[in-house]
Amino acid sequence: MPISWIKSLIGASKFSQIESNVAATELELTADQLARLNEASAPTPGFSALLTSRNTRRMVHGGHAVSGWDDQSKAT
Q1: Dihedral, CA atoms, 53, 57, 60, 65, nearest 10 degrees?
Q2: Can you tell me the distance from the alpha carbon of 25 to that of 10, in angstroms, rounded to the nearest whole number?
Q3: Which of 37, 44, 64, 73 is an S-S bond match for 69, by CB 3.0 to 4.6 Å?
Q4: In angstroms, rounded to a whole number, what is the distance separating the alpha carbons of residues 60 and 53?
């Protein structure tokens, strides 16, 4: 694969950026750092979140709980 394709795939325009990106794969974050990053980058629930709500799933499936959807699929 030509280097120009690799640069495009990982968003680098200079070889030094590729080296930096590869070096970043060795970075280890603490559990607290990961939790803070996950919280900061969590998407805000919008319209599509309503489509997977417990009540919507039960309505689509005729009032029946469907296993395998996650722990929210348990009948309440």
Answers
A1: -160
A2: 13
A3: 73
A4: 11
Report how far residue 49's alpha carbon sits from residue 65's, in angstroms, rounded to the nearest whole number: 18
Q: Is 67 exposed, middle or buried (0-12, 13-18, 19+ CB in 10 A)?
A: exposed
Which pLDDT band holds residue 67 (cuts at 50, 70, 90)?
Answer: confident
pLDDT digits (tens, 9 = 90+) for 36-60: 999 998 877 777 777 777 788 777 8
Question: 18 is written with which tokens?
Answer: 């590729």
* Domain boundary assignment for the chain: 3-62
